[in-house]
Amino acid sequence: RISFDLLCPHPLHMMLTWILLGQVPFFLEDPDYKGLELDLIVLCEKHGKPSERLVAFEGTMTGRRFLACAEPEGQNCGFVQWVDEQWPPTMENALLKLWSMVEESKSARVNDNLQSALTIHHLAEEKNKLDADYDKLVKDVHQLVDFQQDRVVDFSYLQSAVTYQHQCRAELVAG
Ligand SMILES: [Zn+2]
């Protein structure tokens, strides 16, 4: 939904008016070109208010000045009027190359982050496994100790049984 408005009443008659409804290009904060455009009266069509000076920061449009509806997001009518003409093809190619380099380094970073996330997940799993192993070891040791105590008890029972038999025998001998 791009319409070209070539009826430009302003001194910058080379300007192309592009109305990209709801599609304002990404832009950059530029100290040399910012705020409301009050020198040229370019009113956004829907609101009839002075437009805002912005610098595109997207694809082949990167660095081109434009005027846009100054209303905040949600109320913004998407009015865009380019101040700078399209760059020559060589410049556009260079910009596309730069953006593809940015994308590459971004996806490399995403991969790195994914890798660290997986490593952290793996480490967490290792820790859980170690915790489980430790719990099992503690349980085994307790069982072993219990078992040994049972054996001691058994032994003392045996001991008392032997002692009892000794006593019985002694009584028999005495009797
Ligand atoms: Zn507007």
UniProtKB/TrEMBL annotation:
Superkingdom of the source species: Eukaryota
Q: Which GO terms describe its molecular function?
A: zinc ion binding
Q: Which UniProt keywords apply?
A: Metal-binding, Signal, Zinc, Zinc-finger
The residues forming the signal peptide are 1-22
Which residue ranges does the record assign to the GRF-type domain?
44-86
Q: Which PANTHER family match?
A: GENOME ASSEMBLY, CHROMOSOME: II, OS02G0467300 PROTEIN
What is the name of the protein in this document? GRF-type domain-containing protein
Give the species this sequence originates from. Aegilops tauschii subsp. strangulata (Goatgrass)
